[in-house]
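Tutorial handout. Part one gives the primary structure; part two gives the three-dimensional structure as C-alpha cells.
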Amino acid sequence: MLIRTTKSEIYEIPFRYKNEYGKKTIGVYGDSFACLAKHAKYNIDFSHELSWMYYLGVLSNSSVDSWGIHGGSENDLAFILQKNELNYDYSILIHTNPLRSTRITKNKITHLYKSLALIEVLTRNKKNILHVFWNVEHEVYKFSHKKYFMDSILKNHPNPMEVGVNVTTRDSTVNKNDQLGGNCHLSNRGNLLLAIEINKLLFSNDESI
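Part two.
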C-alpha cells in the first residue's frame, strides 16, 4: 500500500521482516512506535535490527509486517485496518495520542470515537489481538482484547538522541546504561525490553516458540 502523508512523505507499507526461522506471522499497526517503512526510505543509517519488532520476531520465531504510519492518528489506524484483512497469526495495535489529526492524505475518517468504534468492530472477532498504549491517559476507549501500557519502558529507556527534542519522550530520562539508540523512540535496550514484554503477553502459552 502506497502512503502519502500531510508532511509530503511517500512510502510503501508494510515493511517486512522475513525471519527464515519464522513459524508464525505478526502484523503491527499504529503510529511511529509501529513504523519502519518511512525510516527505511528516508534514513540512510536505518536498520530494522534496532527495533522491538525485529527482536519480537527473533524471540517468537515469527515474521513481522510493520504497517505503522509515522505521526499517525487513531483515524489513520482505523483507515489502515479497514484496508487490511488482518490475516496474521497475531496482530498488535499501537494506539497513539487520541488528539492527533489525520496524517494520511486519502483518509476521510476524521471523527475520533467513530474511528475507535470501527477499530473495535474490525478486531473484536479476531484472535490474538493486543492493544498497546503509550500510557493510561491515552486509553479513551475500552477494547475487547488484552492491553499493555508501555510508559515505564518509554520513560526509562528512550532513544538518548530524542530526549528533550521530541514530544513523545518529553517525560523520559536518558538512561546512562543505554548507550545505543534505536528505532521507535526507544534505545536499543528499550526496544529489546519492549519486545520481551510483548513476547510474554502474546506467547506465554505458545509451545511452538
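Part three, for discussion. The first strand starts at residue 2 and ends at 4. The CA atoms of residues 133 and 139 lie 7 Å apart.
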